[in-house]
Amino acid sequence: MPTSVPAPGQLPQLPVTFRPTRTRIVLLSLGAALLAVLTVMALTLGTLNNGDRATFIGTGLLFFGVLATLSRPKVVAAEDGVTVVNLATSRRLAWAQIVRVNLRAGDAWVHLDLADGTSLPAMGIQPGIAKEKAVADARALRALVEAHGTGTSTT
Fold first, then answer.
1. Residue 141 is part of a domain; what is its CATH number?
2. Residue 18 domain-assigned (yes or no)
3. 142 and 79, same structural domain?
4. Could you tell me if residue 55 is inside a domain?
5. How big, in percent rounded to 5, are the helix, strand and coil portions of the chain?
6. DSSP label at residue 109
7. CA distances (Å), 104 to each of 22, 98, 110, 111, in order?
8. Which of 37, 30, 21, 44 is nearest to 127 (CA)?
9. pLDDT tens across 12-49, in order?
10. pTM for the full predicted model
11. What is the residue range of 31's domain?
12. Which whole-number Å values give the CA distances from 92 to 53, 76, 109, in the listed order?
């Protein structure tokens, strides 16, 4: 689902998904290319036995799996709250649980300050390849938190 950047004073339409699209494209493309190259090598090299072929293809699948996992992060904002999907975890938050949305200079991704005093990284908004998009997404999430919850934020 495409991310919409709100005009001043306008909120994005819910549900909205924030994710590092360019990073995801690069990671999945690289994973698919590695898998394809290793599979072609396994099938075309005549000197390999079946075990070696399986090792080549298994290595390609392993690389693809790791890169697919790295492309997993996203933040989904819906009417009833926010779902933060990071590399190995997923957490559902009610709007009222989010106190502040932070994306400061030098941060690798957005951090959500929560009502219980903890902070949750939201890796789905990261300024790595597309800084302007990450800042716009952080501002959109901040506006949603302010409209639906009790939060404040710093960007």
1. 2.30.29
2. no
3. yes
4. yes
5. 45, 20, 35
6. S
7. 21, 17, 8, 9
8. 21
9. 888 999 999 888 999 999 999 999 999 999 999 989 99
10. 0.80
11. 25-70
12. 42, 9, 18
